[in-house]
Amino acid sequence: MTIRNLPLGAFLVRGLAFALLWWVLADGRTDAWGLGAVGAVAAAAASLRLLPPVRRRIGIAALVRFLAFFLWNSLRGGLQVAVMALRRRPGLRPAILEISLALPPGAPRLLLVNAITLMPGSLGARLSDDGRLRVHVLDARLPVAAELRALEVHIARLFGVARGGAS
User: Fold this and answer.
1) According to a count of CB atoms within 10 Å of the terminal CB, is the N or C end of the chain lower?
2) Cα-atom radius of gyration of the chain, to the nearest Å?
3) Which among 159, 46, 35 is positioned nearest to 104, based on CA atoms?
4) Count of C-beta atoms within a 10 Å radius of residue 75
5) Residue 6's pLDDT band (cuts 50, 70, 90)
6) How remote is the C-alpha of 160 from its chain's centroid?
7) What is the spatial distance between Cα 111 and Cα 137, in angstroms, rounded to a whole number?
8) Could you tell me whether strands 122-127 and 95-100 are parallel, antiparallel, or unpaired per DSSP bridges?
9) pLDDT value at position 40?
10) Pairing of strands 132-137, 95-100
11) Backbone angles phi, psi at 138, to 5 degrees
12) In the chain, at which residue ranges do the beta strands (DSSP E only) sit?
């Protein structure tokens, strides 16, 4: 795929996003824009190749429900991890869980992996092509699989997609 084959609108939006990121990372210095412009163009082209644009409409109501769910669970998870850390003998049972995802490939799965990583107590460790996600958890006794399923439901609603046949 060459730059000529890339969708122009998506290329410009992503290029501007990467340029903004460069500007933030370079502390707004103008002498860094030579490398920054090349990097933004290359990053935009690579991102379109790795994650082609898909037209999906995200509803405001679903977005608000997802954000409320995510913020609540982040707060609850943070408090849960703080309590574990403050115990004299935490008694943690770290584990790696392997979970089959029911979301379709692309942006919904990527959002799920990033959201689970930002929620304390769990870390998305590996997403395989066949839809299996390895998750590192601080304590195997926590209901991480159930929380991940609830997160999947919110993300499916957010993107307006059906969940597949994973268990």
Assistant:
1) C
2) 19
3) 159
4) 12
5) low
6) 17
7) 18
8) unpaired
9) 92
10) antiparallel
11) -70, -35
12) 95-100, 122-127, 132-137
Q: Check pLDDT > 50 for residue 16.
A: yes
Write the CA distances from 146 to 24, 79, 123, 167, integer angstroms: 38, 18, 15, 11
Q: What residues are paired with 135 via a beta bridge?
A: 97, 124
Q: 100 near 129, Cβ under 8 Å?
A: no
Q: At 122, is the secondary structure helix, strand, or coil?
A: strand
Residues 6+ apart with CB under 8 A from 36: 19, 22, 23, 26
Paired strand residues for 40? none
pLDDT in tens, 87-111: 877 778 889 999 999 898 888 898 8
Q: Which residues, including other chains, have CB under 8 Å from residue 44's CB and lie 6 or more apart?
A: 11, 14, 15, 17, 18
* 119/121 Cα distance (integer angstroms): 7
Distance CA 15, CA 18 (A): 5
